[in-house]
Amino acid sequence: MNLEELLNYRRSVRVYDPEKDIDTQKVKHCLELATLAPNSSNMQLWEFYHITQEDLKEKVSKVCLNQSATRTAKEIVVFVTRQDLHRKRAKYVLEFERDNIKNYSPVARQLKRIKDREVYYGKIMPFLYARFYGILGAIRVLITSTVGLFKPIVREVSESDIRAVAHKSCALAAQTFMLAMAEQGYDTCPIEGLDSRRMKRLLNLPSGAEINMAISCGIRKGDDGIWGERCRVPFEEVYHRK
After folding, report:
1. Are 69 and 94 members of one domain?
2. What is the DSSP string of 181-236?
3. For residue range 46-80, what is the model confidence (pLDDT) as tens digits?
4. Which residue of 7, 118, 190, 239 sits 20 to 30 Å from the alpha carbon of 74, by its own alpha carbon?
């Protein structure tokens, strides 16, 4: 299938065929492809928990309110944001960028580009993603509001804003995963109706991790798998050409 066919094929499947299995290794590869998704500042503040064990899958389904989409799923993937790993991920990207610049940038520009990356990933990202009871976010808002009086600047820098950024980036990975699964002929359903607190305990996640969504996986059970035609508001209501 080409991209347009994939987008039309992908549906949120609510019931999976119990007689049709999926290849766990192919699902894992789709998750590898999900890491190619664009994300803010390439921080990659995500983790994927691939649930394949039957007993754990049943527990995860209960945390997902025992919806048919998880109850009948062959496997489930839980997408998790890890804003608490921002220093570790920033350090990793910085080390990569140092080598990347040395290998691919003109020699005359290498020193400046490396220094720019060191400021960005060594100072700006740690300051931007740090959390401390809303105080650091308030300081960032004050700084950007002041600078914004004189020039354009990113203003969504409060702790809740940055939390949203981490979740948006993770959602891009989730969408990429679902399209990769569709290319394999597999079906998925994104699920946000779940008990995030119980899910964190079930997966033994640290306090700084947050549940983004769960995605059930399988092969749709005929017409029972999807609930009729896809509903979308008229395109004219959402498209604005300026």
Report:
1. no
2. HHHTT-EEEEE--S-HHHHHHHTT--TT-EEEEEEEEE-B-GGGSS-SSPP---HH
3. 999 999 999 999 999 999 999 999 999 999 999 99
4. 7
